Amino acid sequence: MTESSLARGVVFIHGCPRALCVHLEWSLSDLLGKPVSLEWVNQPVTANGVRSELSWVGQAGLSNQIAAALKHFPDLRFEVTEEPSPGHDGQRIAFTPSLGFWRSPMGSFGESFVPEDKLRITVADALAQGESIPEAIDQVLGGPWDRELEPFRFAGEGMAVRWLHNVV
Fold first, then answer.
1. CA 78 to CA 75: how far, in whole Å?
2. Torsion-angle region of 52 (φ positive above 0: left; ψ -120 to 50: alpha; else: beta)
3. DSSP class of residue 34?
4. CA–CA separation, 134 vs 33, rounded Å?
5. Confidence at residue 111, expressed as pLDDT on a 0 to 100 scale
6. Predicted model pTM
7. Has residue 63 been placed in a domain?
8. Residue 120 lies in a domain
9. Engineering a disulfide at 67: which of 25, 62, 78, 93 sits with its beta carbon 3.0 to 4.6 angstroms away?
10. Do the domain assignments include residue 131?
11. Per-residue pLDDT for 52 more than 60?
């Protein structure tokens, strides 16, 4: 893999039952091709919960594989980001047990954006169903996920971040 085909990102484990930590590390180790040992800290928002962060470098699109693997862990709340790389948009993926997945393309400054066709469809669907356009747009922008994850994000301020590289 050449340096130009590498992508960078971060996995934010906002809330994880303590019993799943080692299993989650094994799953990330498989994806990254090297052992992963995360620094887990208490997550005061949930009983017996912990949180961690992992910065990664690997092939473009690795964020999709990480999110797909993590969704199988019960009661896990997480976000995975991938910075834009040559020929690839960045993205942010959020997951909560109550809401499922939300995904958005991500710009070079970390901002989420909504593709034109998705916005047109969202507005047209809201009008056709008599729903609120602001609420429909909030949904597309990930508002419900941000509101649910926000208490978990604040609980982890000041955490150290580790960088791991994907082995090819």
1. 10
2. beta
3. S
4. 43
5. 85
6. 0.86
7. yes
8. no
9. 93
10. no
11. yes
